[in-house]
């Protein structure tokens, strides 16, 4: 099965700025995966955060700084611990973090200026 490619979420802010968000889930979405429906291991969470960070920076490069970029992650202790380690860099680069809670609500880090 091939995975989908492209930007996960594209939105336009009230000021007209294009916003691109790279999203990662809490469990595998592939029914054929051995981890389907189970939370990712700490190592897998690290890989997902690294890939999301890389993609956010890549989106900045591809768009010449003309858009806002962010990453959306499950609001789990493991994800938060990984983001904590790069929080200052995310803030410097203005990469927003969207924390998706288990009830579907979303909290922001406040990195967009």
Reported CATH architecture: 3-Layer(aba) Sandwich
The DSSP helix count reads: 3
Secondary structure class reads alpha/beta
CATH class, please? Alpha Beta
Number of strands: 5
Our estimate of the beta-strand percent is 15-25%
Strand order of the largest sheet: 1-2-3-4-5
Tell me, what's the shape? globular
H-E order: EEHEHHEE
Q: Mind describing the biggest β-sheet? A: 5 strands, mixed
Helix content: 25-40%
Number of domains: 1
- The N- to C-terminal Cα distance equals 39 Å
Average pLDDT, to the nearest integer?
87
Over the alpha carbons, how many angstroms does the gyration radius reach?
Answer: 14 Å
SSE order and pairing:
Elements: E1 9-12, E2 18-23, H1 42-62, E3 67-74, H2 77-84, H3 87-92, E4 95-100, E5 106-108
Helix pairs in contact: 1-2
Care to describe what's here?
With 113 residues, this protein is of the alpha/beta class. The chain has one domain: 3-Layer(aba) Sandwich (Rossmann fold). Helix content is 31%, strand content 24%. It is built from 3 helices and 5 strands, in the order E-E-H-E-H-H-E-E. It has helices at 42-62, 77-84, 87-92; strands spanning 9-12, 18-23, 67-74, 95-100, 106-108. The chain has a 5-stranded mixed β-sheet. The longest helix has 21 residues, at 42-62. The N and C termini lie far apart (39 Å). 20% of the residues are buried.
């Amino acid at each position: 099965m091939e995975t989908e490619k492209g930007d996960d979420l594209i939105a336009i802010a009230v000021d007209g700025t294009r916003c691109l968000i790279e999203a990662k889930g809490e469990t595998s979405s592939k029914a054929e995966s051995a981890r389907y429906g189970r939370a990712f291991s700490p190592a897998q969470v690290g890989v997902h955060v690294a890939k999301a960070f890389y993609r956010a920076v890549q989106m900045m490069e591809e768009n010449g700084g003309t858009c806002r970029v962010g990453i959306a992650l499950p609001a789990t202790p493991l994800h938060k611990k990984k983001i904590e380690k790069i929080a200052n860099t995310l803030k410097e680069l203005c990469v927003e973090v969207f924390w998706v809670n288990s009830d579907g609500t979303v909290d922001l880090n406040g990195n967009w200026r």
